Amino acid sequence: MEHTEQGNIISNTGILDLTGKKPEDLEGISLIENVGLIFAPESLSGALMKIPQRNVGMTVSLPTTSGKIKVLTGQLTLSGDVFANQAGSPEDILVLAGQAIITSSIEKIGFSEVIVAGQLIAPKSQEGMIASAITRLAGQIAYYNSAAPRLFMGDHTFSKDFFDLIDGKMAMVIVGSYEIAADVDVETIKQKISEIVLVGELTVPKALVPVCQFLATTQLGSIQARDEQAAV
C-alpha cells in the first residue's frame, strides 16, 4: 500500500483480500488501481463503491457466514477431497480463485457455498456434482473426459522426441502458453493424443491446426498457427 497526501493507494497486486475488514478500515484508502481480483464481504459493498478504482479486473462479493471463508488462490492442483471440508464446519465457504484443476472424484460437499473466480478444470464425470456445489461462478469451467490426464502448467515446447516417449494415447490438460515443435507431424498427434483441454494458448505448425482443433474438447483460449517464415 502506497501513502500519499490524499490518502493510501492500493496498487499493483494480483489479489486484494478484504475478508475480515470493516467499513471503517477502508476510510483512509483514496484509490485502488491495477488489481486483478478483489475479495470483499457483502458488508463492505457500500464502502468499497465509494473508493475510486482503476484497472480492477473483478470484484467478488462474499456472503456473510458464521463459519470460516477458505480462500485458495493461484494455479492449483487439488484432489476432490478438498470439497469435503472434513476438518471444518458446514457453514464454511470455499473460494477458488485463479486456475484450479480437480484431479479426482468429489464424494461430498462440506461447504455451505463454493465460489469460483477464474477457471475450474474437472473430470467430466463430476459435472453434476460440481454444478450442484458451485453457488457463484465468475469465470469458466472446463471438463476433461480421461480418467488420468497429463497436466501441463507453464510455458514449454512439445517436441517429436517427447511424443515418441508416450505409449498409447495421452489426454493433455494444458494451462499456460505452449508450443508444438515443427518436427511433429499430423500422424504423431493422431496417434499420441486422445484429447486436449486448453486453458491458454497453443501455438503449432500450420499443418497441425485442424487436428489440434478437432482434439480440443474444451478450448478456453486459442490454437494458432506459428509463422514458420518468421521463425527461420
UniProtKB/TrEMBL annotation:
Q: Which domain of life is it from?
A: Bacteria
The protein's name is Uncharacterized protein
The scientific name of the source species is Paenibacillus mendelii
